[in-house]
Amino acid sequence: MMDIVAAMRLYLLGEAAVTPLVGTRIYGPPGIPEDQTLQAMIRIDGPTGPGRGMYIPLNEPWVQLTCYGVTDLAAMQLYGVVSDALCRQGLKTFASVTAGKRAILYSAWELMAPFPGHDIDTNWPFVFGRWATIWYEHEYPI
Q1: Residue 108's domain spans which residues?
Q2: What DSSP line would sit under the chain, residue for residue?
């Protein structure tokens, strides 16, 4: 079974509109490094949803995306860019985290409206949302 958080990170790193804003500051578990300073970045948590099963290479996990910015507005704008990148994916394929395979993000849709807030420990502005996704891992080059 594929690592959905790592696949989502690779997908977002390949998005031309996202990378100028965050560079490589897209983190999965265990989270944002303790020495990180406040700047545009994304944290991915998940998967929280069930997959189809061990014999079908189609995954339908939920992921939570949290976008940080130096201001409330910057966090919301980054979330909007990420949202646009996910909503227009159009069967984008990319190298999977599993050696010798390709990953396909078939679809992504928001399960909840973006929720703004401030981190309880750092007071950094953020916007998070939960997304349902459909992924496929293909064994052959595409």
Answers
A1: 4-138
A2: ---HHHHHHHHHHT-TTTHHHHTT-EE-TT-S-TTPPSSSEEEEE---S--S-TTS-EE--EEEEEEE-SSHHHHHHHHHHHHHHHHT--SEEEE-SSTT-EEEEEEEEESS--EEEE-TTT--EEEEEEEEEEEEEESS--
Q: Is the predicted pLDDT of residue 81 greater than 70, yes or no?
A: yes
Report the alpha-carbon distance of residue 102 to residue 104 in Å, rounded. Answer: 7
Rounded distance between C-alpha atoms, residue 84 and residue 78, angstroms? 10
Q: Alpha-carbon torsion 133, 69, 88, 14, what sign?
A: negative
Interval 43-50 mean pLDDT? 68
Whole-number pLDDT of residue 89: 58
Per-residue pLDDT at 124 exceeds 90: yes
What CATH number does the domain containing 10 carry? 3.30.2000
Unique residue bearing structure tokens 């690779």? 10
**How many distinct structural domains can be found in the chain?**
1
pLDDT at 84 over 50: yes
